[in-house]
Design a protein that fits this description.
alpha/beta; 3 domains; two-stranded parallel ribbon
Length: 484
């Protein structure tokens, strides 16, 4: 006799997933073992041959930085990616964005580098972070960065120390990996961000001279693509950068793995049996040996059991789209990327919406509500990264999309949006959307929105905005999900 599926238990398990899935490389919000899900495409991000990993907020930059920096988590990652040689690594942090005994944030940086620092000073600082990591790999003593600045600027002494250490690591078969995370936090003005970013990238390029001492940077795409950066080898670094992305297969695999390993694993196991699927071990999830990690057809069948096949009812329900595809389509940004944070946020909100349906876990109405919740959360989180974003979105509320470019510019101009954002950023000490020295035209404001994936230009030239941001920003669109 087939088991009776406890849909309410599965619904409760989704609803109780952590709503805030953000991570830091170190500290209270560092990643945990049970959170590791390892998409096949993320192997390149952990590969020591890739010094630069770029990704939007919520894609997992700090998560993987934290995994690399923790011995136990790195051992688990080695099971997921056995060809990377992760067990050979000794890992130290070069920058974390967080202060503390082992962390390096903006306070330590500013204490070493005055606001009028030169490019030579900035390079000396980042060389000092390399030397600090080198010292930390052989001693538990915490070395002060300020005391290493002189060595960092002395090329002869610096190269001698690095060459000696590199030789020792080669003999032992080990590799020292120095990880840099949260690099968007180290400056609050455009000139200083340009200075520090370029200096760090120049040090990364120079470190190619050493085989067993490597650097790995986790940073936002807009930071490395900044047009103000100029040095000869920059195009090569950009070309070799790895981008962290999540496919629909990865996102559903993550959700189903959390359910299979979570509090409702018995009820979820019964549902898996109904779909002729097996419950996995944690090792099988790590190694992607579970059908729900790699088989889209199996994922679609399971999502149909959870929420029905279509986002509507009746004869023409198919016109509303599949419940599997709909979240992926409406959660994508202007780069057509969806983050785990937004995806899980939608599912959590959907599981909390309305009364539990009979014989299902989620409803189409719940999934639509989940988009509204995910949109609000995404804009709130984006505001933490770009404090100007809400002030730029607010005047556009009620605007019907897609819209002519001049109309968008006119709305911003009438509200003095650009000038207000520049004044507010100066008053509160955060990086403004545009460089004040530029033309200060609304087209620069649009360019800033486009660069972070919040707005896009259609083929006919009109301006549009992905639903992920549009819904929370209260812009309108015919036939689309209504704003909050």
């Amino acid at each position: 006799m087939p088991a009776v599926i406890d849909y309410k238990a599965i619904r409760g398990a989704i609803a109780s997933l952590p709503a805030d899935v953000s991570n830091d490389a170190i500290g209270t919000n560092a990643p945990r073992l049970e959170e590791i899900y390892a998409p096949d495409t993320h192997a390149a991000a952990l590969d020591i041959s890739a010094p630069i990993v770029q990704g939007a907020r919520g894609t997992g930059k700090s998560f993987w930085a934290g995994v690399l920096g923790d011995d136990a988590l790195r051992e688990a990652a080695a099971q997921a990616y056995p060809r990377l040689g992760l067990l050979r690594l000794k890992v130290q942090f070069g920058y974390t964005g967080i202060e503390g005994p082992t962390g390096i944030g903006r306070d330590k940086l500013d204490a070493c580098l005055p606001q009028d620092a030169t490019s030579s000073d900035a390079r000396a600082f980042f060389w000092a972070t390399v030397l600090r990591a080198l010292a930390g790999s052989t001693s538990t003593d915490v070395h002060e960065l300020s005391g290493l600045m002189d060595v960092g600027s002395d090329i002869t002494t610096r190269e001698r120390q690095l060459a000696t250490a590199d030789s020792e690591f080669q003999k032992s078969g080990r590799i020292l990996l120095i990880v840099y995370d949260a690099l968007d936090t180290f400056a609050t003005s455009w000139p200083r961000r340009h200075l520090l970013t370029q200096a760090l990238l120049e040090v990364v390029w120079a470190m190619r001279a050493y085989r067993s001492i490597r650097m790995k940077l986790f940073l936002r795409p807009d930071q490395i693509e900044d047009d103000a950066l100029h040095f000869v080898e920059l195009p090569k670094l950009r070309t070799g950068a790895v981008r962290l992305t999540w496919s629909g297969l990865d996102l559903y695999g993550l959700l189903f793995a959390r359910l299979a390993m979570g509090d409702a694993q018995r009820a979820f196991g019964d549902l898996l049996s109904l779909c002729s699927l097996r419950k996995p071990t944690r090792a099988q999830v790590l190694r992607r040996e579970w059908p729900l990690s790699q088989d889209e057809r199996a994922q679609r069948d399971l999502m149909t059991e959870l929420a029905g096949q279509y986002m509507g009812e009746g004869e023409y329900a198919y016109k509303k789209g599949d419940t599997y595809d709909w979240p992926l389509k409406h959660l994508s940004d202007a780069f057509d990327e969806v983050t785990p944070r937004s995806f899980l946020g939608l599912m959590i909100a959907a599981a909390k919406y309305g009364p539990p349906p009979a014989g299902r876990v989620l409803t189409p109405a719940g999934i639509q509500h989940g988009l509204r919740a995910a949109s609000k959360t995404r804009v709130d989180q984006l505001h933490q990264e770009f404090p100007w974003i809400k002030g730029v979105l607010a005047p556009l509320a009620g605007l019907l999309l897609p819209q002519e470019e001049q109309k968008v510019h006119s709305v911003w101009r009438k509200a003095s949006t650009l000038q207000s954002s520049l004044e507010d950023s100066s008053l509160k000490g955060y990086l403004p959307p545009v460089q004040p020295a530029k033309s200060n035209h609304e087209r620069e404001l649009y360019a800033a929105m486009e660069k972070i994936g919040v707005m896009l230009r259609r083929k006919d030239g009109r301006i549009d905005m992905p639903d992920l941001f549009r819904v929370a920003a209260k812009l309108l669109k015919k036939g689309a999900t209504a704003p909050l």
